[in-house]
Specification:
This protein has a 5-stranded antiparallel sheet, covered by helices on one side. The longest helix has 20 residues, at 46-65. The chain starts with 25 loop residues before the first strand and ends in a 15-residue tail after the last strand. The model is unreliable at 1-7 (pLDDT under 50). The protein has a single domain (26-132), classed as Roll (Thiol Ester Dehydrase, Chain A), CATH 3.10.129.10. It contains 1 helix and 5 strands. With 147 residues, it is mainly beta. The structure holds coenzyme A. The site of coenzyme A has 13 residues, from β2 and β5. Residues 70-73, 99-102, 129, 131, 133, 137, 139 line the site of coenzyme A.
Length: 147
């Protein structure tokens, strides 16, 4: 009988419970990250996720802006769970504020893990503000009542 201890086995991460998808938000984007989007840990690079959230967040404001707009602020951005290659990501968005020239949206991102389709894990939530801009890049009024 050997007295040598066996190599440590990495602990299995606890399974994250599946959650219900939001009913007060609109599905604005679905995308699957690829290996080229990974960071050095092998998870998906946070900057890639932020770019997708920026695109997804612009969908609802675009209906009010009817033209050029720019992201003026990322008010909050939380990476709640890692995103992995092969996850099916669903981006949900809702308006939280319409100002004179700006629109703020809340975005939530849910992952269906590889081989676990139909089970949703919330991986990211964020709040972003977009500004309607004119041809000179200056703020212009948002058309309320659209959308
Ligand atoms: C967007 C931009 C035109 C706004 O110009 P500005 O002179 O700062 O405009 P204002 O101060 O008049 O603010 C315009 C609106 O943005 C809002 N805003 C400005 N800074 C903000 C901030 N840090 N957080 C949230 N909202 C902000 C203002 O409250 C205002 O909204 P309202 O009219 O609905 O009340 C200018 O900041 C810009 O060009 N930024 C660069 C945008 C960019 O390159 N984004 C990344 C690529 S899309």
């Amino acid at each position: 009988m050997s007295t040598e201890s066996s190599p440590a086995t990495p602990p299995t991460p606890p399974a994250t419970a599946s959650v219900a998808l939001p009913t007060d938000k609109e599905l604005v984007l679905k995308v699957i990250p690829m290996p080229a989007d990974c960071n050095a840990n092998g998870d998906i690079f946070g900057g890639w996720v932020m770019a997708q959230v920026d695109l997804a967040g612009s969908v609802v404001p675009a209906r009010y802006v009817n033209g050029r707009m720019a992201t003026v602020a990322v008010n909050q951005f939380i990476f709640k769970q890692p995103v992995r290659v092969g996850d099916i990501l669903s981006f949900f968005a809702s308006l939280t504020r319409i100002g004179n020239t700006s629109i703020t949206v809340q975005v939530e991102v849910y992952a269906e893990r590889f081989r676990a389709q139909g089970q949703y894990i919330k991986v990211t939530e964020a709040s972003l503000t977009y500004v309607a801009i004119d041809d000179n890049g200056k703020p212009r009024a948002v058309v309320r009542g659209e959308g």
